[in-house]
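Hi R.,

Quick one: here's the Copper resistance protein NlpE sequence you asked about.
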Amino acid sequence: MPRLLFAILLPLALAACQRETPAPEPAAVAPSAAEPVVEAAVETTLAQAGVQPGPGAIDVKAFAGKFSGALPCADCPGIDETLELGADGAFTLTDVYRERPQGTFTLQGTWSTEADGKRIRLDPGSKTEADRLYAIADNDTLAPLDADGQAIAGTPDLRLTRGK
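And here's the predicted structure, written out as tokens:
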């Protein structure tokens, strides 16, 4: 009986000890002359120092800065808004509601350009806060937009201007 058990277990033990040889990797196939080579280009508009996303886009490093202005408020005298755009792609948005105790709210996240440099998107990186959009009126002026990227209807000329 021990010989029979040895005869059965020996081949199993030897098979378990052998190294597995990895399967050969498939050879790369070079495209033929008839097949065009398609390269996927990924365009990023994240505000990174010195990155210019495309024609007509802004130089985000040069555009970064501090913008501020007074915005209307439905139940207070107004909102003093300050937006700081960092050249590294970070932003800080501070809203101070006038004549309200604990009326200061700060939002932080990343910013990027859209629509060939005509709009800025603030992404707070939070599921509870919605992205905010601003039109770039000129190098020193931003205008808040609604969630669809349209001018806010029925409001006075809303503007944030670059701090000097």
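The two ends are 96 Å apart (CA to CA).

Cheers,
M.
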